[in-house]
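Hi there. Long-time user, first ticket. I'm pasting a complex I've been working with (about 532 residues overall). I'd like to know whether the download I got is complete or cut off, because the file seemed smaller than I expected. Thanks.
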Amino acid sequence: MLRLFGLLGEKTLNSLGRLGRGTQFLLRALVGVPALVLRPGLVVQQLYAIGVLSLLIIVVSGTFVGMVLALQGYNTLVNFGAEQSLGVLVALSLLRELGPVVTALLFAGRAGSALTAEIGLMKTTEQLSGMEMMAVDPIKRVIAPRLLAGFLSMPLLAAIFSFLGIMGAYVVSAFALGVDEGSFWSQMQAAVDFREDVLNGVIKSLVFGFVASWIAVYEGCDATPTSEGVSRATTRTVVHTSLAVLGLDFVLTAVMFG
Amino acid sequence: MTNSVSHADPDVLVDVRQLCFRRGERVIFDGVDVQIRRGEVTAIMGPSGTGKTTLLRLIGGQLQPDAGSVHVLGHDVPRLGRDALFRMRRRMGMLFQSGALFTHLSVFENVAFPLREHTDLPEPLIRDLVLLKLEAVGLRGARDMMPSELSGGMARRVALARAIALDPQLMMYDEPFAGQDPISMGVLVSLIRRLNDALGLTSVVVSHDVVETAQIADRIFVISEGRVVESGSPRELADSNSAWVKQFMHALPDGPVPFHYPGPSLEDDLLGRR
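Hi, the file is complete. Here it is re-exported in full:
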């Protein structure tokens, strides 16, 4: 029993230590962000690697999530004769929840893991050490542009996800389920509030983008410089980001809509 | 940081005194003294695992000593702030054992990297400088290749061109000959000496390749078990009376450094008595 408490204490201290180191690391990276104004090329490169290269998975997932949402929603709403409200259901689900959350989960799998692996391998092959010895701060040169690009990419990806989800739902509703097009759009227009729904969704995805990018770059820098270490760090990025996004989503939802 | 500037012998570029460093419980250095003189090629030698690379990292300020002092280019390295440390590093170059080339950049861009980061030179001048540095290591023709297309020896030469891009005063080489074929090794040996003399550098070579290092070094420090066991010119070390230095310099398989790693006797092991 004593051993169990000891183990629990050790794990807790380790986790708190990691959180502390991660926060220090984040502060150092944030200090490097303003200087990126003078070197926008570094951010643009990362926006391409993180944002543009994630587009395919976002486009496909968004469209299919919207289509499935329409099918499932229709089956329930039709029992109450409320199938004309399908547009509202789909739009609110996507803008408030599924858009930001699913995008963040896909981001963790696609871009977060790639970021961790890239930085972890740079550390393993002494590229980060080499940069330090060339008097170039890797936190400012490598980490800060990736952190900023991840933060900026997430709301854009979430917006594309939600837009395509709504379009997918519209196609299924109007052409397969026979829902009236006018009702689909007009009810959506009447029920969706810009500040309450759209803006809150954007705030959520900004928070998720910040946290997901932070975890990804920190895990990369903190990775043990071996192939196994990088592999573990990549896994940790996906797991920790997913858990953080789901936990934060609950908190944000409670604050925004509770 | 005026208090970090030393006024010691101006001929000594790197002055390490009574250096102590440990990793966890393991003592790596226990009172090491090393002086590296301006314009010379100094070799730090010793068996694997004696902390030779660690010494370079302490000189470069990537690690902090537990005790003792490290003065480089007149600066007290452990007491330097981050900005001052980075300013000092602009005056030193380091060749990593792995080369540490940026895998997403071409050979040309790798060599141009420090120039782009630290200077505002116009593009045509950067191009000329990079080509001259690559010419110095014989790889001007490989400028468009990617690091993954280079052999181990070529990668190290590109890394060398990059390390001298900002014309450093001090060059540090971490195991430059490890894993090289005889031709690449010969090229690197002559390059280190030639660049040192032609560019007026001061070089520190960490290596356990006795023959190659002894060819180019002006002075050798032999480190073992956390201390400098002997230092002097290659000839002085070759004629040393120390049994340990003799074993190391003449690559004898057994001697003060035993062939067998300490452990229970073979008899006990085979009879399962442990």
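A couple of notes from our side: Residues 128 and 134 of chain A are 10 Å apart (CA to CA). The longest helix of chain A spans residues 138-177.
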